[in-house]
Write a structure and sequence with these properties.
Layout: H1 6-18, H2 22-29, H3 33-45, E1 49-56, E2 59-66, H4 68-94, H5 97-105, H6 110-116, H7 122-127, E3 154-155, H8 157-162, E4 177-178, H9 179-185
Antiparallel strand pairs: 1-2, 3-4
Helix pairs in contact: 1-2, 1-3, 1-4, 4-6
Bound molecules: zinc ion (ZN).
The site of zinc ion has 8 residues, from strand 4 and helix 9.
Length: about 190
């Protein structure tokens, strides 16, 4: 497997789906520009994306596309995630909670990645009483709504300060709020 890093896998997945949509990548991975550039560099070096120049109205711009080997790599990884999910289901139905928790603990973040690629969804996890597997993300500090994993757009004190909004009472550096509550602060 050429893709050791979960963030890299997400970035490659988004490029494959939407093209080099940097704002989508930022929003859905919560990565900074520097990390995204490092991922792109890695993909290019390993032949997972192809770079081409596009002559446009505003001059030349660079276009990225997943190469065939990038697509193969991604397909292979998604298959791996599906197999892992089957394994989780098997353990959940045949063994106990403790075995399940142990098997997931050895691969942190993998269930979140499954959610990201749509292999499982949060309502299915809830129905199977497995919702806690992705409970690493925190709820909105204000409304306590779960911050969605796939399109999670959350705001910390830094963003609130940047917009000169009033910080909710008692909110800490590690807390986040949802987009709705963020908009509300500005009103
Ligand atoms: Zn909220």
């Amino acid at each position: 497997m050429n893709l050791p890093d979960y963030d890299h896998i997400k970035v490659l997945g988004i490029i494959d789906e939407l093209g080099p949509n940097i704002s989508a990548i930022k929003k859905r991975t919560m990565l900074g520009m520097e990390q995204i550039e490092r991922a792109l560099e890695f993909f290019e070096k390993n032949g997972l994306i192809e770079k081409s120049q596009s002559r446009g109205f505003f001059g030349n711009s660079v276009i990225y596309r997943t190469s065939q080997s990038g697509k193969d790599e991604l397909a292979q990884y998604i298959q791996y995630l599906k197999d892992q999910w089957k394994e989780i289901i098997d353990i959940a139905s045949q063994k106990g909670r403790a075995e399940l928790d142990e098997s997931v603990r050895t691969k942190p973040g993998i269930v979140s990645l499954m959610v990201f690629f749509g292999i499982v969804d949060l309502s299915l996890l809830s129905r199977l009483n497995l919702r806690h597997l992705v409970s690493a993300n925190t709820p909105c500090y204000v409304c306590k709504k779960e911050l969605d994993l796939k399109f999670m757009q959350k705001f910390t004190i830094r963003e609130i300060q940047k917009c000169h909004f009033a910080i909710p009472a008692g909110m800490a550096i590690s807390d986040s709020i949802c987009a709705e509550c963020f908009d509300h602060l500005g009103k």
